[in-house]
Amino acid sequence: MNAERDLSPLTPGVVRALTDKLYEKRKVAALEIEKLVREFVAQNNTSQIKHVIQILSQEFALSQHPHSRKGGLIGLAACSIALGKDSGLYLKELIEPVLTCFNDADSRLRYYACEALYNIVKVARGSVLPHFNVLFDGLSKLAADPDPNVKSGSELLDRLLKDIVTESNQFDLVGFIPLLRERIYSNNQYARQFIISWILVLESVPDINLLDYLPEILDGLFQILGDNSKEIRKMCEVALGEFLKEIKKNPSSVKFAEMANILVIHCQAADDLIQLTAMCWMREFIQLAGRVMLPYSSGILTAVLPCLSYDDRKKNIKEVANVCNQSLMKLVIPEDDEMDEAKPSVTIPAEPTSEENLSKPEAGITGEPQLVWASRGVRKVRVMFSRERIQVTLNLDGIVQVLDYHLSDTSIGMMTRIAVLKWLYHLYIKTPRKMFRHTDSLFPILLRTLSDESDEVILKDLELLAEIASSPAGQTEEGQGPSDGSDVRPGPVELHVPARAGQLSSSSTKGLECSPSTPTMNSYFYKFMINLLKRFSSERKLLETRGAFIIRQLCLLLNAENIFHSMADILLREEDLKFASTMVHTLNTILLTSSELFQLRNQLKDLKTPESRNLFCCLYRSWCHNPVTTVSLCFLTQNYKHAYDLIQKFGDLEVTVDFLTEVDKLVQLIECPIFTYLRLQLLDVKNNPYLIKALYGLLMLLPQSSAFQLLSHRLQCVPNPELMQTTDNTKPSTTFKRTASPNIDYTELLQHFEKVQNKHLEARHQRAGRAEQLDRRVVL
């Protein structure tokens, strides 16, 4: 710039005016440059045009002197105006120095740069689109400029550029997406606002299909949705809403699989708006994509399940999460149990596109070929299909792992635990063969869940355990039964599995050996009974508060005879005699009082069939752990003579307060509707002498108490046998006379009773001895 010849064809006056500090003088110089360039255009002198632009760029716009830079900017704008429609040939040379000035420290200079670029773009119009990325990059920086004038100028330029993009059909979306993906992660509010505004514009252009590239920017959009500015959040919400509308209109062109994990992440966001929006998207994805979403089930469940326990403050999120959960559950079908998980992928039905297909996820899609994105491991695979089936895999291992985690987490809410149990039950129904591979690992946590505070959780847990215990898929081959549960039965209290053939289980039989009148349970039934009793033994509070509830529900879900038969057989070999007595008392109370056991009581009342007699003998042997319950069982089965024989043996037993309390309860039970038939049989004194003797025996055991008065009054109502005789003695008597069953060895049963009671006596003496030794140690 020291020599005039270096700046020709610019005159010295123009050069001085361009570097003047006054804007008006620079403007006059710009008009002279415009006139000069017009002459070159008219002469088609491209070399001189390039030379002028180079001078304005190198010597002025990129100068160290601020006024020179200002002059260079207005000069470049003047060149563009003079070039008119030909400016497109020189845009690179015109734009680059102006964009460099966007980074100038002087805010006034940045403003002039905006002004210059506005004039350049206004003249070039659609010709600037090949340079769109550099323009967008520069504008995204100015959008966050602290100077309001610069920001205002950049907004004018931004609107102009949006108009050009909107009216053009030559926008290079493929080249723009990488830049958009990079800029969308800006934390500056103004930059975010700028990004969202451009996304809204591009989405509104019919010729631009931004939906194809949504996976590239979806994560950034959800991050912007968490901005502190309400205006930006609203803009982002609108943009996401527009995308979702487009997805619903054209589900066949959506890359659901590529966006699934993005939604999973944001469904777990701490921000309520982000979480609700992501959950709404997830709901639509599951309903629109169908089984394409199955490979992501474990991630979806990780995000959805905790939301099910939200309170009313997050009611909207909870409701949407519940729909997601239900919709996802419906995607699992019985065919999944037949698929070979060893293969990388398996054939499953194509994604549904209508409500009809959603209700029948196994149905393929008819019509034109459609494009979907399925997943094989980490790699995404594009698949064409029409009537064919797409390739996905039900990752059952991952799903079970997530369900196990949420069920084990004690901090998880009740509704989440219920949902987990419903999921497990659903999987055992739809894919039992595969699910039984996980049963040994799930069994301990399902047993622990029986101690849950919620009755509803326990009910669902029992339904699941009952399904496991009765499912044909749980039937193992000979010699390949379920694990012995040693991992879930540690400690001193161990319930031994009986090995005697003909009881309930043996190493040579499959599952549980039941009587012909009951359905056969699978191999897990007996294991369940063993571990349930072990649970009651180690957690006595559970037995006291929920024991009856649990057993009654199991009698509804499974066969009551199987349950009582198996528990009685296990308790027969229980080493903890005190627990055995308590458990027998609980079972007896349930047997005598629960409406669920009505059929079983009727079966035991008459002992007409071999099965009922077998059941009586089995129960009797275990009921011997508790003398009073043994008598009540004899009353129930109308074995009055044997009941009388048992009561005669009570004189040899240690009569304790607990013993008398149980006798008191038995007297109360006799007055209940269950024993109506027994009270009516007191009218037939002649045929039921042992019943009366047994009741008098109980009366003699009782101290002077309310129970004594109650039973005494009842016995006073027994009529005189002579008064009960009819006048016509020629007719045969139709009164039922109950005789002992010839197929039951009552002598052996009585000996067994004495043997068990001797064991209890020895055990009490041992406990008393240990307590005395402990007291002595304390004194010493």
What does this structure look like?
It is a single chain. The protein is an all-alpha fold and 780 residues long. The protein contains 35 helices and four strands. α3 packs antiparallel against α4. The termini are far apart. The relative contact order is 0.03. The N terminus is likely disordered. Keywords: Endoplasmic reticulum, Endosome, Membrane, Microsome, Repeat. It is found in: Endosome membrane; Microsome membrane. This is Protein VAC14 homolog. Its main location: membrane.
- From the structure provided, what is the oligomeric state, counting identical versus distinct chains? single chain
Describe the strand arrangement of the main beta sheet, using strand numbers. 1-4
**Overall strand count:** 4
The Rg value, from CA coordinates, equals: 44 Å
Molecular shape? rod-shaped
Low-confidence runs: 1-5, 341-389, 477-518, 727-736
Q: What structural keywords apply?
A:
two-stranded antiparallel ribbon; 3% strand; mainly alpha; 780 residues; two-stranded antiparallel sheet; disordered N terminus; 62% helix; single chain; 35 helices
Chain-wise SSE layout:
Blueprint: H1 12-18, H2 23-43, H3 46-61, H4 66-83, H5 91-101, H6 107-124, H7 132-142, H8 148-167, H9 173-183, H10 189-204, H11 214-224, H12 230-249, H13 256-266, H14 272-289, H15 297-304, H16 315-330, E1 346-348, H17 355-359, E2 370-376, E3 379-385, E4 390-392, H18 396-408, H19 414-430, H20 432-435, H21 439-448, H22 455-470, H23 523-538, H24 540-557, H25 560-571, H26 577-593, H27 598-606, H28 610-623, H29 627-636, H30 640-649, H31 657-670, H32 676-681, H33 689-701, H34 706-716, H35 746-779
Antiparallel strand pairs: 1-4, 2-3
Helix pairs in contact: 1-2, 2-4, 3-4, 3-5, 4-5, 4-6, 5-6, 6-8, 7-9, 10-12, 11-12, 11-13, 12-14, 13-14, 13-15, 14-16, 15-16, 15-18, 18-19, 19-22, 21-22, 22-23, 22-24, 23-24, 23-25, 24-26, 25-28, 26-29, 28-29, 29-30, 29-31, 30-33, 30-35, 31-34, 33-34
Protein name: Protein VAC14 homolog
InterPro entries: ARM-like, ARM-type_fold, Vac14, VAC14_Fig4p-bd
Main location: membrane
